[in-house]
Every structure is written in C-alpha cells, then in structure tokens.
C-alpha cells in the first residue's frame, strides 16, 4: 500500500486528507490550527491527527508513501523551508520538511498554499489532467500558481506565481503591500474592489452605496451586489476589475500559453458578471494564437484544492 | 557512442552541429538553405550533410542517438509538426519529425528556433545550468523562450514564449503584425525603435537625425548610435525601449521567477546603453522578492545557441 497524507495549513484550521496511491481522496477532515503562542504545536497536532485517522482506516504510518504540506507563506521548495508565516505566528526560516520527517519518519514535501491549490485544480479539478494550467485566486489579496509541463513553477527564489504583483494599473493609483503601486492585487482583490469604488466615488460617479462609502464601511461584496442590480459605480468597478484580470491573463497566455485559467477565491463568487467581463477583455487583448482553445473557468475543488495538490506533490516527487 | 546531430534551419543558411552525448560541440558547419521553389530539398540537404560530416569524424548514422531541429515557425512540439514557415517557403502543416525520421532512420525532435536558442543559452550559454531562464530576442521582431524547471514552456497551442506580444504600450500607439496594438514588439524591436523615433520626431523632439526621419530612411542602428552621442531623441527612444523591456521582465519575474534573463538579437548590440536602462527600469517596477538575485545579461552563444538547444532537446527527450 502506498497511501498519501496531505495537510493544507491555514490560520484557523488545517484541512487534512488521506489519499490513495493515485491521489483519490479516501477521507478528509479538519483540525483547529493552534497558532498560540508561536505555532509550535501545529506540526505535532497534524502528526497526531494523521496517526489517529490512518488507524481508523486500518492503516499505520508504514503504509504511507509520503506527506504533503501546504503552508501560508513563501517556501524554498527544493529545501522544504518556509520563510515566515504571519498567520501561523511562525517567525523566520523553518525547515518544515525536515521537522515533519524527523517526527514522523515519513518523507515529507512542502509548498506554498496557493501553489498546492493550483496543482490540485490542475490535477483533479477544473483543469484536470491538462499539463499547462494557471490558477488565480482573488481573495483579500491576489495569489496564484502556474503549472507548466505538469509541474509547478517555483523559480529560483520561490516568487513564481505571484500573479498579484503583475503591473497592470499603469495609472498606479493605489499602494500595494509590496511597496509598489499598480499591482493586480490593488485593483482585483476584495481590497482592490474597495479601492476602485472609493476612487470612483470621490470622482463623482453615481451610486446607491454613497452612505457606506462616506462612512468607510463599504465591502467588496456590497459593490458586487450593487453591480448586479445595475448600480453605475458598481458596474464600472466590476468592468474595470475584469479588464485588469483579462490583461493579466492575456500576458500570461503569451508566456506559458495554458489550456486553462482557473479563477478561485472569495471574489470569484461574484460569478457571471465577473467571468463574462474577464472573457470579453481577455479576448480583446490577447495575441490570437495564444487565446485559441484557452478556457477561463471557475475553480471546482473549493477548500479541498490544497490537500489534492499537496497529495499530488507527494505522487510527483516522493513515489 | 551516442552522438547527437543538430540543425538550426534559417532562411539563408542551416547551422549544423555534431555533439557528444553530453552536448559538447564537436564540430559545427553551415550549408545554404535551398528555399526554392518550395523548400522541398531542405531536409534532404541536411541529411546528406550529416552523413558526410559524421563520416569525416569516423562515425556513421548508427552512432547517432538523435537529431534535433530548430525551425523558423510555429511548432506543435508533441507531434513534431511545423505549421508553415514563410522564410523557408513551407506552406501549411508539415510533419517534420516524421519526415526526417523516415529519411534517416534516426529519432528526430523539432522545436521553434526561438525556443531552441533559449534552451541553448540556458544549458550552455549565459544561463548555463540554471533551471529557470528566460531569453528575449530583440530583432526585427521580438521573440523568446521560457525555460521552467529545466524544460521549455510550450503551452497547449505552442504560443508560450511569445514575449513580443505582451501588452506593454498602454497608449497602444503602433500596429503590430498580430493585428493588435501595444505589443512589446511594436516598441522594443528594430521596427519598434523606428516607430518610436518617428513618433517623437513628429511630436517635435530635437534630433540630429531629422534628414533621415523626414526621408523615411532612418534605421534602428542609427537611432542607437545617435543616443550614444547624446542625441535628445535617440536617448529618449532608448530609455523608452528599456522601460518597456524592463516592464516585460518585471511581469515575467512574478510569473516564473527566472534566475537569468538573457537578452539577444541584433538590437542587443546596442550594448550598455540599453542594458543599463533595462536594469534600472526592471528594478523600479518589480515585486522585490522576485528581483532578488535575478540577473539580466546578454546572450553568449550567438548563432550557435540554436544548435546547442536542438542538441539539448535530443538529450532531454530522445536519450
């Protein structure tokens, strides 16, 4: 038997999965993430949960070919080291693969959470089985993962897939967390939607959201809802967001020419109003041979994408 | 013995190479490309040249592990099919790998010429041995190749590496051959330099090149030379070109985070005045974790890059 264990470690919960040798999900469950005082128990809690659940399935750890971990921070993939994870209270460099292997005796592989989600969607979700797939996650920020020839791109410093920092807003209106202006994240995340709504409100665009905008309480979800019922400002913001995402996908298309772009994250719940706009702008902006037969679709695996991708990494590199 | 043969097929000459098993160049030579009437003799000429030269080295074709071909047109890499090559008078789809294998009895692999040049520079040239390398070729147009995890990106339609069609000129001033406006190729190729020179001349920027600009005879080389001796228009054009290239490299950095960007092609002969500008703008525009330890350098292999890359493909896929 060559089962696979996977964990997608988040700031609140760890999603855990037991997989078959060919990355079919046999069982999934969650445990709380104990981030206090310094996240020092997290790996041990996962290890204990693995022991218990494999036993429930009549397995022990000698039946496990490998463990895959997704973590919320920058990862040195080759060496299995995470360089800080604010949401876990992990400070500085931590050799996660080494620590988990030492504790469990099982070969362990670790990658960034956005990367494993992309690999999960590529392997078993919306891009299933295609070699070239790019995932864009629109949440509080914008993240992503790029799969080329069936393998995640990491790059030499692990900064591959940082789609949120593509230069798209050439007016460079809003400050990004990275220190620059003009990043995709400043105009296409939940924060970006609020940035754009405020910007157009201050420029006098009509809206039913005036009160929330004046009070500084407007949310990206409210802007999306307003757009859906024809609010002028909401519609303008959503079209602009779609335009920036379409531009980003256009540029990615001539670089790695993926079969599938997979859009996930909270902002993607805007649904068709966003997707129709992205497809329209993408088509308008893209080098024709690069958009032929390229599909832009929503993510399918939801919160399970990370464990699927982490399990797939085990399959690719440890078996 | 497992020698490798490679050909980089151009519109005027075919560069040929005999390599050792570990992609060391043993001998290189050229033959003319017979493009008339329909380029129908090209593969046979290469085959005959291979037979003759391997014999001169005391080898016969049974000593050859594989043949790698670089061709000037869009390639379906998996199936070894080229879809037209204007400079060779090749029309429609041609199953090059199949045809060459049938003639020679030797396993054959084929890729686009810009891709094999990038792989050559990655493997034996300016990026030698690093897994993540991107080459940008600034010639009449702008081409390139993207190496991720040591493998060329092709994408599902073979449009990966079409760096010349990144959206960079948001003013979208000049028409591209692809039908769009705003592509990198319209502002960073030899043609692009002339586009920008004309544009600024019509907008009244001072220059010593007035006569050539009025007569429509200005060349990109003349603009570069003028910039080097302090011509206002020339310097403005070169800084703008460098800015657009810097922007393109910045966006590529957050997608595949290469160790090395390798700049080749005729326009790269502008030298330091171009390179200094590219590095300055790149640094200004790029997400800091993505530019750390990333080098931007000139290509090293010149016309040999293609045969090195074609030989490397044989090593990767046929041995």
From TrEMBL, chains A, B:
It comes from Salinicoccus jeotgali. Transmembrane segments: none annotated. This is Glucokinase. InterPro entries: ATPase_NBD, ROK, ROK_cs, ROK_glcA. Belongs to the ROK (NagC/XylR) family. Keywords: ATP-binding, Kinase, Nucleotide-binding, Transferase. Its EC number is 2.7.1.2. SUPFAM superfamilies: Actin-like ATPase domain. Pfam families: ROK.
């Amino acid at each position: 038997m060559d089962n696979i264990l996977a964990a997608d470690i988040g700031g609140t919960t760890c999603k855990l999965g037991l997989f078959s040798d060919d990355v079919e999900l046999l069982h999934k469950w969650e445990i709380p993430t104990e981030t206090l005082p310094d996240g020092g128990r997290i790996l041990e809690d996962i290890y204990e949960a693995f022991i218990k659940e494999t036993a429930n399935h009549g397995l022990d750890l000698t039946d496990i070919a490998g463990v895959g971990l997704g973590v919320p921070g920058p990862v040195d993939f080759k060496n299995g080291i995470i360089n800080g994870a604010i949401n876990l209270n992990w400070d500085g460099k931590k050799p996660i693969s080494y620590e988990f292997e030492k504790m469990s005796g099982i070969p362990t592989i670790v990658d960034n959470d956005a990367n494993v989600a992309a690999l999960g969607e590529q392997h078993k979700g919306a891009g299933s089985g295609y070699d070239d797939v790019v995932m864009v996650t629109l949440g509080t920020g914008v993240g992503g993962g790029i799969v080329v020839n069936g393998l995640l791109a990491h790059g030499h410093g692990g900064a591959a897939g940082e789609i949120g920092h593509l230069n798209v807003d050439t007016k460079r209106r809003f400050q990004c967390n990275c220190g620059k202006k003009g990043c995709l994240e400043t105009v296409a995340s939940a924060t970006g939607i609020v940035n754009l709504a405020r910007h157009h409100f201050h420029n006098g665009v009509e809206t039913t959201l005036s009160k929330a905008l004046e009070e500084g309480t407007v949310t990206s979800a409210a802007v999306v809802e307003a757009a859906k019922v024809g609010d002028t400002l909401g519609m303008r913001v959503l079209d602009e967001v779609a335009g920036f995402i379409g531009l980003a996908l256009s540029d990615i298309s001539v670089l790695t020419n993926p079969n599938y772009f997979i859009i996930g994250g909270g902002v993607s719940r805007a649904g068709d109003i966003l997707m129709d706009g992205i497809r329209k702008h993408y088509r308008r902006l893209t080098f024709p041979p690069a958009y032929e037969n390229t599909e832009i679709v929503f993510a399918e695996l939801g919160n399970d994408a990370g464990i699927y991708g982490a399990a797939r990494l085990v399959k690719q590199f440890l078996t």
